[in-house]
Design brief:
The protein has 293 residues and is α+β, with helices and mostly antiparallel strands. Helix content is 20%, strand content 30%. Strands 3-2-1-14-4-11-12-13-10-15 form a ten-stranded mixed beta sheet.
Length: 293
């Protein structure tokens, strides 16, 4: 029997996306590379635990869950996260940012200074700009101020991000226009915490890193994996990667695989097996034409 591995998620580095595996191994991904794996026949997807600890009961989780955690482990993970606003004494500096995922899809968020742009790559931000830097609670208060004053959210569903990727503007200037305007409005607001140092607008574009612009872009995605199943398999050429999503050219067309669906399963290498996992039609944003991806 082929050796089975458990995926620990997709991580972005300065060299690009890397699939990580329980035990510390990593598989670097590059466009044009074939990505293929199968789920162990008769396998069961189990909870990945929380905060680096295994699930004490090895609870089963549904194949359609992107969190891959049981209810109790999900609660523990949220309770100790910066996003849940439960950590007030983190001494590290934090940055506030504006991120753009497509027309009309802008969010405000915070990330630890030491992480650089990793959080933005993980979220699939097509372009972004820093707004300011300071202590955690100052960054959090600024985030809340901007959410209320500018009317931008702090979360955008991945389904919305995927829906607009095929129709993104063609130049960096066009892609940065929305956050440039919002950055100017944000700087003009009063009420920023004194301990937060504002940063000038400097748009950073990830479209080339993701493989969704220029002559090297692949065909538009036609479907997305709805979930993995025991005994299922998927394989294809990697034509793009954004956030946790891999765009794979399969015999069924380009299919988007959210790598968060891989965690918790025992996986084995695959070769020429057909795409044998549930795939649903990819929702497109209104007005998006085929072939622009």
């Amino acid at each position: 029997m082929a050796q089975a591995w458990k995926c620990a998620g997709l991580r972005w580095t300065g060299e690009g996306p890397v699939l990580t595996w329980v035990g510390g191994r990593g598989s670097a991904l590059s466009r044009g590379k074939r990505v293929a794996f199968g789920v162990v026949e008769g396998g069961v997807r189990t909870c990945v635990g929380a905060r680096g600890h295994a699930c004490p009961v090895r609870a089963g989780v549904t194949g359609r869950s992107t969190g891959a955690r049981c209810e109790e482990c999900a609660r523990l993970d949220r309770a100790h996260s910066v996003a849940a606003d439960t950590i007030a004494d983190d001494p590290r500096p934090y940055r506030v940012y504006l991120a753009w995922f497509g027309p009309g899809l802008v969010k405000v968020g915070i990330t630890a200074y030491e992480r650089g742009a990793a959080r933005l790559l993980e979220q699939g931000a097509v372009c972004f700009s820093w707004l300011g830097c300071g202590p955690l609670m100052s960054a959090r208060r600024t985030e809340e101020l901007l959410r209320a004053a500018l009317g931008v959210p702090d979360r955008i569903p991945y389904a919305h991000k995927r829906a607009v990727r095929a129709g993104l503007p063609g130049t960096e200037a066009e892609r940065a226009a929305e956050i440039a305007e919002l950055h100017a409005r944000a700087v003009a607001l009063g009420g920023w915490p004194e301990s937060l140092t504002p940063e000038p607008f400097r748009g950073v574009d990830h479209a080339g890193v993701f493989g969704i612009e220029g002559d090297g872009r692949g065909p538009a995605a036609v479907g997305e994996v709805a979930g993995l199943v025991a005994g299922g398999a998927i394989g294809g050429e990697l034509v793009a990667a954004a956030g946790p999503d891999l765009h794979l050219a399969t015999e069924r067309g380009v299919v988007v695989l959210d790598t968060r669906l891989m965690t918790g399963w025992e996986l084995v290498s695959a070769e020429g097996e057909p795409c044998a996992v549930p795939v649903r039609e990819l929702r497109r944003a209104a007005g998006v034409q085929d072939g622009l991806f």
